[in-house]
Structures are given as C-alpha cells and as structure tokens.
Amino acid sequence: MIAIRYKDWQQDPDGWAKALGISREAIDVYRSAEVIDLHIDTFIWHRVFGYDLRKRHGSGLLGGRFYSQADLPRLREARIAGGLWSITTNPLRSSKSRARTFKRNLDEIQAIFATVPEHVAIARNRTQYDAARAQGKHVAMLSIQGGNALDRDEDVLDLITDDLIVRITLVHLSTSTLGVTSAPNVKKSLGRPEDGLTTFGKDYVKRLNARKILVDLAHINRKGFFDAVSVHDKSQPLIVTHTGVNAVTEHWRNLDDEQLRTIASSGGTMGVMYQSPFLGGPFWGCKSVRVVDHLEHIVNVVGEDYASLGSDWDGMIIPPIDMPTCLELPRLVQHMLDRKWTPERIHKILGANFLRVLKAIRP
Questions:
Q1: Which one of 82, 261, 268, 290 counts the least CB within 10 Å of its CB?
Q2: Tell me, what CATH number does 310's domain have?
Q3: In this structure, what are the phi and psi dihedrals at residue 144, rounded to the nearest 5 degrees?
Q4: Tens digits of per-residue pLDDT, 62-82?
Q5: Host domain of residue 239
Q6: What's the pLDDT score for residue 24?
C-alpha cells in the first residue's frame, strides 16, 4: 500500500476558513455536506505523462491552468467525498484500438486505486457508495468520456463487466459513429452540423439504458441532445455532467433553458463546470462567483434539485483565478451563503442531487 498524506482540516475548521479567506459558517456548511464532483478528468494526465494520482502535486507551470488541478491527496484534503472519474477517448485511434485501449485504461485506473485502499473505493451503485463513505473513503465512480471508446460493434459494450462504468458521455469533441459534437470548427465527417444522433447512436442509448449506465449529454449538439431524449428510457434520469448555461454566458458548449427543463423533467441533474471561457469573464481566468451565477440560473429555471458540480478538473480547462485547484472549492459555499441560500440547498448542489440520481438508476 502507498501512503497518501494531506492536511486534515476537520481538526482545524477555523484555520481552514482563515486560509481560504471565508467564513467559519461556509466551512461548517461545506464539511457537513457530501461533496461530489460529476467530472474529474485527472486520469488523462496519468495516461499522457505518467502523472501519479496518488502524489500531491503543485499547481504546475501555469498556475493550475490546463492541468495539475487535482490528485488524491488534494481531493482528500478538500474533503471531496466522491467523483465520476473519466476515462477519455482518443478519437484518432481505430474503433478496434479504442476498445483495446479503453480496457487497458480501465484496468490501470482500478490498479492505481487498489494501491490506496484506505483512501479510495470504487462504487458501482448507491449502496456501495454509502458503504465506502461510512469508512471515510473517497468514492470513485468510473466513467467514459466519448462513447466511441466502445462503438466497434453492438457487442463491444460487453467489455464493461461487473457494472463498473456508471456513466458514458455519448460524444466528446469529435463527431463519431454515434453522433455530432457541439464543438464548432470540427469536421462533421459523418454528417452535417444540423444532424444529431445516428441510428447506431440511438440504439447505443437504448443499450446504455438496459445496462443502467447514466447517459451523459454533455458535448453533444442540440439536435443530438433531443434525439437521445426521444429514445431514452423515460424511467431513468438523464445527466449532463459538466456544462454552463447560455442564459448566463452564450457559448456553443452551454445548455439553453429548454435543455435544462428536459434534464430536470427526467429527474436528472446538471453539473456546472469550471472552464472560464464557458462561464464568462476573462479568458485567462474568471472569478469563482461565475460558477454560482450559472448554478443560480439552473435553480431559478428548474429548482434547486437539479443543479450539481462538474468541475472538469485537469480536462485542459482554465479554472477561476481564485479557485485554480480543488483545494479552494469551499469558496463556492461562501458565494452561495452571500446569496442567502440555505444550507439545505447548498448540500443538494454539493452532492445530494447527484446521490438522488445515482440511487434512482442504481440503488
């Protein structure tokens, strides 16, 4: 086993508040919540550069921009209870190669977490999540970003065994055999920009439903979004793990109010991400209050039961300048309290909303 070392602020809440320049009330609300991140992309840097997830890193050469925003020691110090850990797809590989690479990466991330069993547990459902949290562990729920990791044929989803994958983002930053990305200036090699999900993509959604894998509609274009909704099992919640909202910042990556209402009506949730250009403000880093601006719009449109956090830590994002890493996350709670939000609402957004979704699809 490998030791993970971090400061346990639970023993010094006043010091924690002082270190972050926020109130003791904000710290108390934060540490009494189950804090869950719907999209952690840190594993990508392990794959590319051998970034050790178990080692405490600094904020990197760029001050937390693009990479070095999270690792297990810092996630533990920040008291982040759980997260959807993403295995991101390389679209440049062949479909056969993508499937092999995914399986290798799935084995690798499990092996890493297995070396620190006192600190991390993999959960496939709400029951396993609760059991791991009762032991004080960080809970990793494994996910795929880019469903074309497993689009070789109809049987390739069988590579997912033991219900290990909790969520799949249908498309990422490229158009695939499943459908069209929302990203502009990307070659739409399989169709026009106004096209959405392919026939194969619609069948893919149905097969994810059959396996009780959360269908994540981040990154997909608007037509594809509603194509997925049209074939999705109405008894299961939909999710958008990391996004912004157009009513706050108009952007190709963000959701409009109709999309917000659609996710809410399914009983799902939407995680607001920390990418400054999507949030609005200076490209090189907005302020963390912008995250709460987007959360507030979701609350105003569909209610407090459907908003969550989906950072996209280490997904090559430019985070807010006052929240460059996961360690500064409690500052969001101060912004929420400044708006007179109740602790109950804050707890929902920090994690309870996602836990409701997880229980609904995988008790």
A1: 261
A2: 3.20.20.140
A3: -120, 130
A4: 999 999 999 999 999 999 999
A5: 9-361
A6: 98
